[in-house]
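ok so for the tutorial part 2 we go from a plain amino acid sequence to predicted structure tokens. step 1 is just haveing the sequence, like this:
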Amino acid sequence: MTELVTFAPDDRGYVYAVARRIVGSADDAEDVTQDALVLAYRYRNSFRGDSRYRTWLHRIAVTTALSHLRRQRRSRIAVLDSDDERSVVERSVDPAKSAETLIAEAEDRAAIQRALDELPHGYRDVLLERVDATEPEVAKRLGISVANVKIRAHRARKQLRQTLDRLERSAA
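step 2 — the prediction. this is what the tokens look like for a chain of 172 residues:
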């Protein structure tokens, strides 16, 4: 007989809150929450008790949310790298999507590209390198410390978010 493990209701809410702060979107946060709780269940025997249970659960939630963002970022940047606008549209065509949705997505991609262009080179380099490399790999490629990679990536994401908010307000 399999053991039934249940999480406390506040555990799910806690993981959701952590995920929501990181990914932003409620739908994405729900996906991350589900994935994180599945991972916590799958690896429940690895909890050694060296730290509080919430600390362990928080680390799983953060790691899962960051992985989710990396997967999204990779697909966005692959689309942004293309110079051929038609190929961008062809790659994003989904028969279930309306023309309005496709136009909105193209506008979003353009806004992201403008926001990336406004980043200082040091921040943009770290952010773009971080798409397909670990922090130590980025540090080695750019000749900076891992701590500096983390700091620049954090500041780049913060500035990118502010720029996108500003562009969104000016478009409205």
